[in-house]
Specification:
single chain; alpha/beta; Metallo-depent_PP-like; Calcineurin-like_PHP; globular; Phosphoesterase; 5-stranded mixed sheet; 5 helices; about 170 residues; 4-stranded mixed sheet; disordered C terminus
Length: about 170
């Protein structure tokens, strides 16, 4: 049975992100090769991946080459660095679906690029990216930025199970 994964903020082709986020790569080529390998080690051909934004700083041809190497059915929720390009641009680059807005997954998980304000009384979880190495406290936020996940997509079950564990502990 196909699995569902989440990740964000690859910033393919963004040289300065290596220094900004202390990424363990010497250059963007090494970063690209490593991140593609880690994606494909976790994600199978039939799996689904929600990419929660800030995918690539490269032109369409180079972005398309990367997307075509990644396993799975790929859904992009546009991040702040993606929004300068149209939905059609990203579809042409190889994403199977593209959303300009947050999505609700399984009636409980809000998928967004930027963290959303979550009132403590709200029983939902916000799966997000954008804040890279930072992390919001509490069971209502799950940061899927690559820096949080060793550059490897995280499965829905891992997110669900960590929320349940947090809830039981807290």
């Amino acid at each position: 049975m196909p699995a569902t994964f989440f990740i964000s903020d690859h910033h393919f082709g963004h040289k300065n992100i290596i220094d900004f986020e202390n990424r363990p790569f010497t250059d963007t080529d090494e970063m690209t090769v490593t991140m593609i390998a880690k994606w494909n080690a976790a994600v199978g051909k039939e799996d689904k991946v929600f990419h929660l934004g800030d995918f690539s700083f490269l032109n369409k041809e180079r972005t398309k080459k990367i997307v075509s190497q990644l396993n799975g059915y790929k859904i992009l929720i546009l991040g702040n660095h993606d929004r300068g390009r149209s939905r059609d641009w990203w579809l042409d680059a190889g994403f199977d679906e593209v959303s300009e807005y947050p999505l609700i997954y399984r009636n409980f998980f809000f998928l967004s690029h930027e963290p959303m304000y979550m009132n403590k009384q709200m029983p939902y979880v916000n799966v997000h990216g954008h804040i890279h190495g930072q992390k919001y406290e509490g069971r209502q936020y799950y940061n899927v930025s690559v820096e949080q996940l060793d550059y490897t997509p995280v499965s829905f079950e891992q997110i669900r199970d960590s929320v349940v564990v947090d809830e039981e502990q807290g």
